[in-house]
Please model this.
Amino acid sequence: MAKETQFVEQIADIEKDFPQWYTDVVIKTKLVDYGPVKGTMVIRPYGYAIWENIQKELDARFKKEGVENAYFPLLIPMSFFTKEAEHVEGFAPEVAVVTVAGGEKLAEPLAIRPTSETIIGTMCSKWIQSYRDLPLKINQWCNVMRWEKTTRPFLRTSEFLWQEGHTVHTTAEEAEASTMTMLGVYKEFAENCLAIPVITGRKTEKERFAGAVATYGMEAMMHDGKSLQAGTSHYLGQNFASAFEIKFLDKDGALKTAYTSSWGVSTRLIGAIIMTHGDSRGLVLPPVVAPVQCVIVPIAARKGGVLEACAKLKGELEAAGIRVVLDDSDNSPGWKFNEWEMKGVPVRIELGPRDIEAGKMLCARRDTLEKEEYPLDSAVSAVEGLLARVQKDMLEAARARRDSRIVYAENMDEILRGVETGNFVKAGWCGCRECEDKVKEVAAATARVYAEGETAEKCAVCGKKAEHVIIFARAY
Amino acid sequence: MAKETQFVEQIADIEKDFPQWYTDVVIKTKLVDYGPVKGTMVIRPYGYAIWENIQKELDARFKKEGVENAYFPLLIPMSFFTKEAEHVEGFAPEVAVVTVAGGEKLAEPLAIRPTSETIIGTMCSKWIQSYRDLPLKINQWCNVMRWEKTTRPFLRTSEFLWQEGHTVHTTAEEAEASTMTMLGVYKEFAENCLAIPVITGRKTEKERFAGAVATYGMEAMMHDGKSLQAGTSHYLGQNFASAFEIKFLDKDGALKTAYTSSWGVSTRLIGAIIMTHGDSRGLVLPPVVAPVQCVIVPIAARKGGVLEACAKLKGELEAAGIRVVLDDSDNSPGWKFNEWEMKGVPVRIELGPRDIEAGKMLCARRDTLEKEEYPLDSAVSAVEGLLARVQKDMLEAARARRDSRIVYAENMDEILRGVETGNFVKAGWCGCRECEDKVKEVAAATARVYAEGETAEKCAVCGKKAEHVIIFARAY
Model:
């Protein structure tokens, strides 16, 4: 048991020092490492496997919506950014610039894409002639770069992986509908695959994407009560279509400017999983995206027949499509329990001589730490059932935690107290930028999204008539 | 029929102007477009779907070999390249360099990766402590950049997509074995998935990867008889392990330097598919990687029941996992035939009122242009069977074409005549660099690979004793 204690001590206390807990967990479970260039990360196999599962799930959903994948160049001429005034203002300060290539100074500096509206807009203006070419729905899985001053693995790094969807439509209504459809796809995915309950809604002017008419975000509550923007969907109106001359000949013979939307999620989602579900023992991974769904730990492994029974069980689970590992290393069972708990594997099976004799196996759930016995001869259905229950219960538990931490505020004091004690705070807002800025200044909190459908009497900041209810929170 | 002729004329004659045929085909079938920055390409959905199928097939093979995916940063400090002398010499001239980021000049310029041995070596030296950590087998799917002067879509562009595998081992033998295993994986994949017969073998010193001990390539013959290097596998010995201090504590307690290998294929493979199988009508795509495997063209579509029968057929094929499109556009059947032939779809089904009445469908193979009738009620097995035959026959036809164009040369004249008339030329070689350079100078051909297991009396260039037989060819 000495080892066990020693092991758990390697991770900082999640309640006392959440930032250090996060760093400990991502490094020690080998999800990620720091790259040699400041602000960059190496996504290690255990972390990348989560990303692969995210990609698989999302990509299938995109294709169902008629979206096709493509690939656009990494390097964008700097002049492209200046075509959309707000866009250049938003992105130019954090761009990485190539000035030398092939041993020569370039005539025009090239930006490494921070996002691809400008280059995709340029290509679309070439590809689209008629209403018959629309709607156009394209997505790319790629790396992007935004030079950030303060970085943390998965949450904010100078380079990250993401997908960016871009659609072009004949009408504003259709483009807006597509914006909302993709927001819905993200929400369904976050809840059903990542077990993360999210609040979706429109963002304020201050928080919207540089160049968008409207930005919709999905916000998730982390263990410390702070919010993490887990995805965004932007209605771009004709802003980019005008700047990049995306025009089409309509049915009525008139040449019209198109309407566009864009939407994206990134490797940040891995950070969201860690900080939504993690506990004092480490990661707790939702089965749908867990690289390993089930680990088999042999008990008294040297006894005749134990390893053979474990290997047989592994084969059966594998054949059923369950991602399973048999830990037949030299470490003690106790050490293995800690190791695989820290790595967040949803289900652990313990199998020893007595279990085998009795035709049973002991299954431990990572989320609740409950243990239960199941007959060995129906192992597949037992584990499948367990994984489904873990997935469902993780979402419900996260939702209950979050819902218990949404409070209402009538004034600035209550906003401050609310966010300081780790809550999402709903408050009336008059709609003016000054009041939004004041919340930032006093409470270090930002407007996450409009609380759709809710109303309030007064603005919690200035006391004037409230036009909206806003969810304020401190955020990553 | 006027339309049909007009359509075919849009592509240059494959026999008279192969380079123009290539450009016409890749642009007109919407595989690719030129990016705004010189030398870059946009991979359009029809081209990217081929890449996705390639990824799916290769990725499964890599995982079977115990390789795990990861992701390493795009930007590499310039100083990393200088650690391996030959490597920096090979890659520094074509590197794109970031000198400004976040509005500030960088203290150290950063290279956009042309390949990742240096950064992966750096991380491995941190991760590997003991022989227990080995072998380490990592792969990444990513973009890389090499600033090329002359570019062509898929074949040579400043940015391209690829996978790069990197392995670390305790012994030279194991690293060499891994190098050969991956070369074998590539060959099996090229032949069975792309229907491209390849010759694999070691490269000469002149042609090997900058920093490798030995490079093995796979060479495919294109329509014009030129060779295309379709993939490489490098045995790196201790070159990178020494430079980046990848050391491990061995079983015997001694600290030893590891041995490494690396291997890669890229979007160049799409160019290989086009130039191996294409014909006067356009693309001919192998079923395993074709984005659309089967197209249904309704005949007399306005007649009652035709579109319904086509939709039903489509549903059946789709349910069986066949990638199928129903072309119910307003274009004439003749126009559609040309369109889908140009796009290289392996199987076309024609379905009209008389076919439906007779319970039959007419299937046309893209590769042989043969047509045959099949009963509608066993459509799935008919199409599955056809796709399998097309796949197999495409490989055999390509192999027969290639084998008929491998000639032997006894002297420089014969080498020149051989490559000029579009052949791979096998010739004896003394092993000296001067003779290899002379073949380049006189015949504009390079040593592709050693013809393993073959012997010759004399060097075809200098007449001295031959040490090896080399396959010379003009190459892309």
